[in-house]
Amino acid sequence: MCTDCADDLGDVRDPWLPDRLLRTERDLLMPLLRRTPEEAYELRTACPGWTARQVLAHCGAALIRIVEDRLEEGVFLPEANACDVAEREDWPLGRILDELERGLTEAGPVIAGREDGRLDAVALGEWVHAGDVREAFGEPHAYCGPSLDLALPLLSVTSRRRETPRLVGVLKDRARTEVSLGNAREGRPAATFEGDASTLIRIYAGRPLVRTRYELTGATEHELLIYR
């Protein structure tokens, strides 16, 4: 799905897009995680109170819940996420990484099979969390990289589902690609964004905007959040 034709597609869902994103991210992320010294996993991330190790524990737990159909009410709320992370506190790092790799491999087909598409945003969240870990490790292009071509159309769909206001974005670092996000609201013109793609991701995911440069008119950063 091309990002500049997302508006024409409206709410049409590509059920296998989350799977492609998760598998692509698996192939990019896991080699980095396997070769990173264990002490680096205690570095703090953009997620308040969570180290890189804890972020990855959360990611693996969330995906395996999907794989095993353990999706009781409130499963992805902060309290439940904290319990999943605490449960893995004494796990060896290798076990955490193994669970994450399994989840990245097996969760996509389950998400594709959900006709309501409610779990699609989990795949996008996993990709964002991979960016959190990359940033903690000092890796470049934390919220960008080769998976971005899959993340952007999934962001378009998710922003509509989360009922953010309509926004037209011009991505200066991607040959001025135009993306369409959110929903039109009567009497309110579309907001506009001009900046790089990773900054757009940071805004929608609620990540720190320090050292970024962008122009946003017609909406506030808070209105655009998809994870609250």
Mean pLDDT over the full residue set: 93
As a whole number of angstroms, the C-alpha radius of gyration is 17 Å
State the shape: globular
Structural class: alpha+beta
Work out the number of β strands: 4
How do the helices and strands follow one another from N- to C-terminus? HHHHHHHEEEHE
Largest sheet: 4 strands, mixed
| Strand order, largest beta sheet | 2-1-3-4
Strand content: 5-15%
Q: Low-confidence stretches at least 5 residues in length (pLDDT < 50)?
A: 1-10
Tally of contiguous helical segments: 8
Kindly state the percentage of residues in helix.
40-55%
Distance between the termini: 27 Å
GO molecular function, one term: isomerase activity
Keywords: Isomerase
InterPro entries: DinB/YfiT-like, Maleyloyr_isom, MDMPI_metal-binding
Protein name: Maleylpyruvate isomerase family mycothiol-dependent enzyme
Description of the molecule:
The N terminus is likely disordered. The two termini are 27 Å apart. Helix 2 runs antiparallel to helix 5, helix 3 packs across helix 4 and helix 3 runs antiparallel to helix 6. This protein is globular. A 4-stranded mixed sheet has the order 2-1-3-4. The chain is of the alpha+beta class and 228 residues long.
